[in-house]
Write a structure and sequence with these properties.
Elements (H helix, E strand, L loop, with lengths): L1 E5 L1 E2 L1 H18 L4 E5 L11 H9 L4 E3 L19 E2 L13 E6 L2 E9 L11 H11 L6 E7 L3 H10 L6 E5 L9 E2 L5 E3 L4 E4 L8 H10 L12 E10 L6 E8 L1
Parallel strand pairs: 1-3, 2-12, 3-4, 4-5, 7-8, 8-9, 9-11
Antiparallel strand pairs: 1-13, 6-7, 10-11, 12-13, 13-14
Length: 256
């Protein structure tokens, strides 16, 4: 089985890039299951139902979110869709769900979404405690477990990888929009990469207009947030698993 994690979709142009290349890429590379992070799809902040349905139409099996989950009010109209998950460690009682289980090639695939607490400005629960609770709930319910850890700090992501090594099949990071080159299979068999990157404007500052971004850093003034309009890149990572044992066999970064 081949599982593709697609880096944060940044803006409508980022989604257009995915629409252009993903269907053929999926077919050519025999991709069986796709997880796509969509929290930046609508103008760089949040997601709408129209954009969400577009992601599903081009092959996304599960769409994960992050710190901009509530960026567009439209999300409350489809937050309970079975293929959409928001960070599981949002406070108890928040609408939506933190994980979902889908079927693929006769296997039950669980996708968990978590958000980091270091420099995220989100009042979330402890992701390390929450993941233990979820893994307990998933006992005997899933053959494959995937975690999208939406976090700022590299150290927090790496720590999470080691923390659940051997307990899940895949841990990939999102949020920083910069693809890292540290893909590896950890000692106990879990596939890990700190960040799969983004699907959005290549000439940008993590998706943001270069001039506007530089001005913010240069002057410290609250320059209006503006998405870049350059040609887009699609980042992601392919995880190949043995069909019988579900063990990770290979990891390959994608940069188109």
């Amino acid at each position: 089985m081949k599982i593709l994690a697609v880096g944060d979709i940044v803006g409508e142009n980022g989604l257009k890039k995915a629409v252009q290349v993903l269907p053929n890429f999926k077919k050519e590379n025999n991709i069986d299951f796709i997880v796509m992070n969509g929290e930046n799809a609508a103008g760089g902040m949040g997601i709408t139902e129209k954009l969400y349905k577009t992601m599903l139409s081009i092959g996304a099996d599960v769409v994960t979110m992050g710190n901009h989950t509530w960026g567009k009010k439209d999300i409350f109209n489809f937050i309970d869709d079975p293929q959409l998950v928001r960070p599981a460690n949002y406070p108890k009682g928040v609408v939506g769900k933190g994980y979902t289980i889908r079927e693929c090639k006769g296997k039950k695939v669980a996708v968990i979404n978590l958000i980091g607490r270091t420099d995220m400005n989100v009042l979330s629960e402890n992701p390390f405690i929450k993941i233990n609770e979820i893994l307990e709930e998933l006992k005997n319910k899933a053959d494959i477990i995937i975690v999208d850890f939406h976090a700022e700090a590299t150290a927090e992501k790496i720590a999470m990888g080691y923390y659940i090594d051997g307990k899940v099949n895949i841990v990939f990071g999102t949020h920083t929009h910069v693809q890292t080159a540290d893909e590896q299979i950890l000692e106990k068999g879990t596939a890990y990469i700190t960040d799969v990157g983004m699907t959005g404007p290549k000439k940008s500052v993590i998706g943001m207009d270069v001039k506007a971004s530089i001005k913010r850093f240069e002057t410290t003034l609250p320059e209006k947030y503006k998405l870049a309009e350059s040609d887009c890149v699609l980042n992601g990572c392919i995880f190949e698993l043995d069909d019988n044992t579900c063990r990770i066999m290979k990891i390959e970064r994608v940069n188109m």
